[in-house]
């Protein structure tokens, strides 16, 4: 027994030594040298005012296309041309599908693959009835109290205007790019981009263009949003989840509500959805989630760093902790979200059918068949039919973090936001960048906008805003990125 105890004690000491060594090995992170901030003169108040003007155009994407007002997109396009003449003189503009814009600022070396920066012109509607809760009207573009207010400041006119502000100043200074840089501004991202960036992506493919890298929206600069990590974390999306919705339909005999059977259509559907939600998809720390944890480990307090640095031992602990938060849990697995229910025509009549729509954001380890099989097995009821209700989209491929594109983004994050940690991550929503998967292997999703604990609800919500200071940083970020990206370095 003494020998066994001695052996166990020795094993514990060895494990402890391995854990400590691995912990101290990540104490000094290796990052690329921070980019020197561009010396371009930026008038932050003027840039903020112009963003406010851009917000005033009600370029709203509605789920029903006929409800969208094309004239607002045309007015925005005309305003953009009048406001940024140097950029429009330097770059060739193409109008795609009536309202989307593709700019090409040609470089001197045509052997170099172009870079593509992306944003989108359209915004989501304001929730009916919420207008009175806005501190400033949602399409006023008011600049007050150090903020620019309005629908689209975060998603996504803020970054679009910052890009064009930077390009305008560089063009006015006479920048002569060696590498071509392109800008794609879609008009229907909020409804999937079928007429905007999907068409532009196909256009580039037909022209035989390969993109050096693509930078779109997705990740943000999270300020005290990452559990256990103090300060700012810039999250650069290296992949995004897929999307599909399934229709679950339960059938039953109708009749009078005064004589209900043991099983009704509504009850059967409710049980099916309950069983589905109680059987989540398998999780796991792999791919972008693992890379994110590894990147954040050096910035974590000692005990958390010890756990992060030893995923081989503490993996289940990390997964349990991440699963407790909907935000981090979405990094680990395909998510299940019942979103719509339909049944019945009158309160005292039993419906003959009840239908539920369930939305799934698909993890890169899964595909459409996995989702259908999981749902069918989870509800385990042959009386409930399971049908795919939209075309869906598969998860994107995972882009590398050792490419020049990722390195450039990281360098300019460190330059614009000193002291920030930089980490790759999995974007749980959808972006238009997925339409460029056939013309580039290096697709990254990041906008230089800082969001803190009180800001996340503003995304697609009430009182959307960004700070004037953040606008200045975003312009400087894009100015430096454009200068570096077009220099022709390989």
TrEMBL record:
Residues 238-382 form the Peptidase M20 dimerisation domain. One of its GO terms (biological process) is proteolysis. The keyword Iron-sulfur does not apply. GO terms for molecular function: metal ion binding; peptidase activity. The keyword Cytoplasm does not apply. Keywords: Hydrolase, Metal-binding, Protease, Zinc. It holds the Pfam family Peptidase_M20. It comes from the Bacteria. Belongs to the peptidase M20A family. This is Conserved protein. It comes from Tepidicaulis marinus. The lineage of its organism: Bacteria, Pseudomonadati, Pseudomonadota, Alphaproteobacteria, Hyphomicrobiales.
